[in-house]
Amino acid sequence: MIMHMSLPRCLSPTSRDQQDALQVFLDALHFTLKSEGGISYDPRDPGNAEGNATAFGITQKSYDAWNKKWGRPIRSVTAIRPCEIQNLYFEDYYLASHAHRFTKEIAIALFDTAVHTGPRRAIQLLQEVLGIEPDGRVGPITLKFIKDACPHSLLNRFLRKREEFYKALCQRKPSLSIFLKGWLRRIHLLRNEVLGIGESHSDYPLSDQ
Predict the structure, then answer these.
(1) Residues 1 and 33: beta-carbon distance below 8 Å
(2) Which pTM value belongs to this model?
(3) Topology classification of domain 17-196
(4) Which end of the chain, C or N, has fewer beta carbons within 10 A?
């Protein structure tokens, strides 16, 4: 599907650097869409509140907000177009999480986390790993700490922190525990994607794949 999408309105590549930047986003989106799947009506999913559906990881609420931002008519998220999926994810998650400011591996991990937890929460988790104030904003301090960090170690610790976040969330909201195994599997796949390793420190039950 991605191969047929139009370019994000915010990024019209006119140079090699911009083309490379676009490709990082497309690679990140490709991974995330594989994890998000298609259209879901699962009533246990908080994103499907009030009987709404989720399409390619996008809730009706998010789609409504995006359409309002651009002065477009409100319609069902199940009718979302491929170009809209790409533009919404680029504007509201990739740029919002500042993923475009980092290396490809960090960009992919941060974007996927932003899609699943929200951009602000994703940045906070990264800041907690860096040992700085988790204010959810990317400024000079966050950029410096990321630049000075070992990328491999940072990514491993960031994904571990995401696992801990999900487990704590399920403790607070036991009804979400049904999704925990899938969430941990997603992190396992993400770790393979950004680090290229089959063995990790995740306690995702590999034998259950």
Answers:
(1) yes
(2) 0.84
(3) Chitosanase, subunit A; domain 1 (1.20.141)
(4) C
